[in-house]
Write a structure and sequence with these properties.
- The protein is an alpha+beta fold.
- It contains 10 helices and 18 strands.
- The relative contact order is 0.08.
C-alpha cells in the first residue's frame, strides 16, 4: 500500500473521529453490568472559562447618552453578571468567568446576554444573527465541546461574523434600529500542557502527547501550526495550500490570516488592515490619531461584518517620519517604501495592509496612491495607500467647530479607504465630484441621493458608504466594494 493511500485513509479516519459522538459512559467488557464514567481529561479537574473581550454598539441604544452595558452569562445552571460599564459605546477586556464543570460530560451549555442598563427598565441588546421575533433572537446559545475544545450553536468556526464574534446586524437589520451590538468572546478549558488542544483530541485524533506543549508544531509542513488549524477546523495532519486558500474572499490568504492572528483576523470573516504613520511637525509634535477616531472609522465596517484593524504600533506601524514642509509625489513614494515596506518589495505586508501617512502638507491635500509606481491620484487597481495633509485637517477643524477632530479624521480615513476599495472618480459620477461640495453648485442637488461619504456633499456629515437604497442616481458602494483592489495587478 503506497504512502499516499495510507495518508488518504488516515485523513478519512480523522474526519470520522471528529464527527463521531462521544458517550460519557462505556461498558466494562469483563463485567457488562458495571458502567464506568469517562473522564474527558484525567490530567486535570476540568473547568471552563468564558471571556468577554469587546463590546460595541452598532445602533443608537439611548438617544440621551451612550449605553450603560452589562453582560449576563449562563454556564449550565450557573448565572454570572458583570459590572455595569457606564456611558460607553465600545469597550475592551471586559469580563471573565471560570466555572467548574463535570469531567464526564462532553458539552456545557452557555448563554450570553448583553444588556443596556436603565433606571426604569433594562434593555436586552441584539447580538444574535437570528431574526428578532417577540423579544427572541437577541441572546446567543452555545454548546462547548470538551473533547475538541470548540463550540457550536449560534456561533461556530466558519461563521461569517467570525469565530468568537457575534453581531445583531447579521440578521439583516442594518437599516433599522434594533439595538444591534457586536460582542467578542472566547471560551476555553484548562489544559495540562497549555497548548489549547484538549486531552481527548490529542490522544484520540492527533496522536500527540497531552503532557507536551505542541504550540507551533507543524507536522504536515504546510506553514500553519497545529493550534491555528485546529481552532478553525482545518486538518493539521494533512498538507493544505494555505498560501492560496481564501474562504472568506477578503483577498487575504489563510497564510496571511495566520500572520495577522494577533489582530484577531479570521479566515471565514472579512478583515481589512491599515497601517498608520505620522510626520513630525516643525516643533517636533506629530498627528496623534486617537483610539476614538479609529473606533468611529470601524463602525460602518463592523456593522457589515467587515472587521477593520489598525496598526498604530502593534506591529510595524506608528512610525514617525522627519518633518518636511511640503511632501512631493515622489517623496511620498519614498516614504511608502522606507516606512511601510522597509525597503523590501517582497514584504508580506504589501498584500495585507493598506497604508496611511499624515504629512505636514502636500498637493492635493488628501489623495490615494500606490507606492509600486510613480505616485498618481489613485484610481487604478493596486491603489493601497493614501496621504493626508495636517494643514487640511487643521483648516477643517477651524471651519467645522461643531465636528470633533476625531470625527473629521475618521471621515477622511473612510473616504480615502473607499478609493482603496475601487470607488473612484466618475464611477459613480457623484464620487469626488467638486460640483457636489456646495449648495451653490448644481451637483449638490443632482447627486443628493448618493448618500455616501464618497460624495463631497456628505464627506464630513455621513460616516458611511451608500447602499443604493436612496433613489435616482444613488449608487450601492457596499455591493461594489472590491477588497482585492489594493493588490498588485497580476
Amino acid at each position: 500500500m503506497t504512502q499516499k493511500i495510507l495518508l488518504q485513509i488516515s485523513v478519512v479516519l480523522v474526519g470520522l473521529l471528529l464527527s463521531l459522538p462521544v458517550t460519557a459512559i462505556h461498558y466494562d467488557v469483563k463485567n457488562p453490568q458495571q458502567t464506568i464514567l469517562m473522564d474527558y481529561d484525567p490530567l486535570v479537574d476540568i473547568n471552563v472559562t468564558v471571556d468577554i473581550h469587546a463590546i460595541r454598539a452598532l445602533d443608537t441604544l439611548d438617544p440621551r447618552s451612550n449605553p450603560d452595558f452589562f453582560v449576563t452569562l449562563y454556564i449550565n445552571d450557573g448565572e454570572y453578571t458583570s459590572p455595569t460599564w457606564e456611558n460607553t459605546s465600545y469597550l475592551y477586556d471586559c469580563f471573565s468567568v471560570t466555572a467548574d464543570v463535570p469531567d464526564d460530560r462532553k458539552t456545557v451549555d452557555i448563554t450570553i446576554q448583553l444588556w443596556d442598563a436603565d433606571e426604569e427598565k433594562n434593555t436586552l441588546c441584539d447580538i444574535s444573527k437570528t431574526k428578532n421575533n417577540n423579544n427572541t433572537g437577541l441572546e446567543i446559545h452555545l454548546q462547548y465541546d470538551f473533547s475538541i475544545g470548540r463550540w457550536s450553536g449560534d456561533n461556530n468556526p466558519v461563521d461569517v461574523t467570525g469565530y468568537g464574534r457575534v453581531s445583531g446586524s447579521a440578521d439583516g437589520s442594518i437599516s433599522s434600529n434594533e439595538n444591534d451590538c457586536e460582542l467578542w468572546f472566547g471560551i476555553h478549558q484548562n489544559d495540562f500542557d497549555s497548548d489549547g488542544l484538549p486531552y481527548w483530541v490529542e490522544t484520540h485524533v492527533y496522536a500527540t502527547d497531552p503532557t507536551v506543549d505542541d504550540t507551533g508544531s507543524d507536522d504536515d509542513e504546510d506553514g500553519i501550526p497545529i493550534e491555528w488549524e485546529h481552532r478553525f477546523g482545518f486538518n493539521p495532519l494533512l498538507w493544505e495550500n494555505h498560501t492560496a486558500m481564501d474562504p472568506d474572499q477578503d483577498s487575504l490568504t489563510n497564510r496571511e490570516e495566520y500572520l495577522t492572528c494577533g489582530f484577531g483576523s479570521d479566515p471565514y470573516r472579512k478583515d481589512v488592515f491599515l497601517e498608520i504613520d505620522s510626520m513630525q511637525e516643525e516643533d517636533g509634535t506629530f498627528r496623534n490619531v486617537t483610539s476614538n477616531a479609529l473606533e468611529l472609522a470601524k463602525n460602518p465596517f463592523h456593522t457589515r461584518d467587515i472587521i477593520f484593524h489598525f496598526d498604530t504600533g502593534e506591529l510595524n506601524g506608528g512610525e514617525i517620519i522627519p518633518y518636511d514642509p511640503e511632501t512631493s509625489f515622489e517623496e511620498l513614494r519614498m516614504i511608502w517604501n522606507q516606512y511601510f515596506l522597509h525597503n523590501d518589495s517582497t514584504d508580506w505586508r504589501r498584500g495585507v495592509f493598506h497604508y496611511l501617512i499624515f504629512v505636514h502638507d502636500q498637493t492635493p491635500k488628501g489623495f490615494a496612491f500606490s507606492g509600486d509606481v510613480p505616485p498618481y491620484w489613485g484610481y487604478n487597481p493596486g491603489t493601497n495607500a493614501f496621504g493626508l495633509a495636517n494643514t487640511m485637517i487643521e483648516k477643517r477643524i477651524q471651519k467645522m467647530p461643531l465636528k470633533t477632530t476625531d470625527y473629521i479624521i475618521a471621515s477622511l480615513i473612510v473616504h480615502e479607504m473607499g478609493h482603496n476599495f475601487g470607488i473612484r472618480f466618475g464611477e459613480p459620477f457623484g464620487c469626488d465630484n467638486r460640483l457636489t461640495n456646495s449648495p451653490f453648485k448644481l451637483g449638490w442637488y443632482i447627486w443628493r441621493n448618493y448618500k455616501s461619504i464618497m460624495n463631497y456633499r456628505y464627506t464630513y456629515s455621513l460616516l458611511d458608504y451608500s447602499d443604493g437604497s436612496h433613489g435616482k442616481r444613488d449608487y450601492d458602494d457596499w455591493a461594489n466594494i472590491d477588497l482585492s483592489y489594493f493588490e498588485i495587478p497580476g
